[in-house]
Design goal:
This protein is α+β, with helices and mostly antiparallel strands. It has two helices and four strands; from the N terminus they run ββααββ. The model has no long low-confidence stretch (mean pLDDT 86).
Length: 111
């Protein structure tokens, strides 16, 4: 599965556009992680606990996006983007979204 932030993929042509596809994850840091992060925020700098949480959540959102696109019959997702928001003060929502497409190699491309 090719996932790209661009509209087109060099060497391929879009055979079909299947529609919008997304992967959503809502995560909360445990109480211990929130306490450690709160203490780190007092002295400033990067809060590694939240950075790690968001990196893992973004990967999981992309994995769900790929699973959903595969279920639709796609072999690529174009124009992929992320969106995020806070739910209350303890949860983060990450959404990976894009357009599920079927692509084919362009004539003369042995990809």
């Amino acid at each position: 599965m090719i996932v790209t932030t661009t509209e087109n993929i060099p060497g391929f042509r879009r055979a079909r556009t299947l529609g919008q596809v997304f992967g959503v994850v809502v995560r909360s840091r445990g109480l211990g992680g929130n306490i450690v992060a709160s203490l780190r925020s007092i002295v400033g700098g990067e809060i590694h606990e939240y950075t790690q949480l968001l990196e893992e959540t973004r990967r999981q959102a992309v994995d769900r996006l790929v699973r959903n696109a595969t279920a639709m019959g796609a072999n690529a997702v174009v124009m992929m983007r992320f969106d995020s928001s806070e739910i209350g003060q303890t949860m983060s929502e990450i959404v990976a979204y894009g357009t599920a497409v079927v692509i084919e190699p362009e004539a003369g491309n042995a990809a």
